[in-house]
Amino acid sequence: MDTKSENRSFGGTQGVYTHASKTTGTDMTFALFLPEEAATGPVPLLWFLSGLTCTHENAMTKAGAQQWCAAQGLGLVFPDTSPRGEDVANDEAYDMGQGAGFYIDATQDPWSPHFRMETYITKDLTDLLAAEFPLDMDRQAITGHSMGGHGALTLAMKNPGRFRSVSAFSPICHPTASDWGRKQFTGYLGKDADWTGHDATLLMKDRGFEGPVLVDQGTDDQFYDLLNTGDFAAACAARRQDATVRLHKGYDHSYFFISTFMEEHVDFHAQALYA
Amino acid sequence: MDTKSENRSFGGTQGVYTHASKTTGTDMTFALFLPEEAATGPVPLLWFLSGLTCTHENAMTKAGAQQWCAAQGLGLVFPDTSPRGEDVANDEAYDMGQGAGFYIDATQDPWSPHFRMETYITKDLTDLLAAEFPLDMDRQAITGHSMGGHGALTLAMKNPGRFRSVSAFSPICHPTASDWGRKQFTGYLGKDADWTGHDATLLMKDRGFEGPVLVDQGTDDQFYDLLNTGDFAAACAARRQDATVRLHKGYDHSYFFISTFMEEHVDFHAQALYA
Prior knowledge:
Two copies of one chain form a homodimer. Chain A is of the alpha/beta class. Chain A is built from nine helices and nine strands. Helix content of chain A is 34%, strand content 24%. Chain A starts with a strand and ends with a helix. Strand 9 of chain A pairs antiparallel with strand 9 of chain B, so a sheet runs across the interface.
């Protein structure tokens, strides 16, 4: 693992690191915030999965999360959104290929050799974080934005016992019913594959989540009709899921929305992580 | 208007009053809490509409709302849930007739002479409160429980500009799709009447609400399947309504649930009323 940068931030350290991932077959970059408390012992870990076109950097610099994680004594990791490199397949579209890994393991050419973000997140990066940093891996929670909200909700439900709480900002809630989802699942998994295990609304209907769920969505989101928040809310109600879904008037899809409600998300996770 | 009782409460006064209603053709009883601030000028008004079998008294004694309305300087009125008396039609069932007015105006015999709770609330009681008490009627908000949650949501959407915010505890969200609704609408309005204007989910789809909406629902509610929270949440999402829907793990349909979240509802309304 190489340290690319470390900066003091809210009494803790904001670092950026690179490591070789066996799963993606590439070098991968991630950012990790550690609060002051990490100097004296392991701290709980919150994951933030980013959206289409993002790297590890967007949320690190624009979500305003460090101040609240510092206040709650939480570590916060920002993974990249896909493998990258000249030898890695790509697509001209912003929503396919590099920057658009969708937090699943591709099974179709040309994507399958490198696009295995689900295993990368849940195995490679998890193992590295546990080995290299003072993190209490028995206390993990997960959040994310848009494609990363899809990632957070689906990884939380796919891995029972792994995350104590899950939240999302403007998540892709029902990808099998959206152009943000069908296109990528067709490319990465194939049109005849079973997609149901990668769809938050279908996972909620099928199994739910053992902890609390929080979803925030702006009503002026320019991608509103791709996100299907109502389908997920209805699935939560049908499941009797411990869940809060909030529709915020006038907010859009940007980091200005995310940063506005970040404090409440961090507090939500802290309540579960310290319970 | 007759004063039945007045008790000091949280620095203000909890009163119970009776008046003759032209609309119901009966004497009607209601409870009104006025905070300390009402001694020196008009205060905003929050309505609490109660559920099946309740009178003005249940929420007054069990919801724990006075402390939070005192803290926020709000008046709080608890109307009765139906006309009452020996000359008023009734039904042996707990969910029909006296104690079950459903906040609509009946058009069918034997109910139509007295069961006109919609007009009673929005006209008779409103006019009386404005005339007799130091209330700022330009600042009104509304909440309620179960059948009263249905009442709050529907009256808020039926009367644009009247209420600045609306919330509900375990509301009947979709009465035209529930045994709590179809039975009563059949009796009060007739099976061939147009019920759509009295259904919160359908009103949300059709017109929405100009202010914020908050709905709380317990996942262990013994009447969960009669309430259709998911339908209302999906309608809010489809409408891009400023709305929060929360599903609270382990809570049931009782006043123990209501009192747990009352502070947040009063604060929610205070934010809208003082904006």
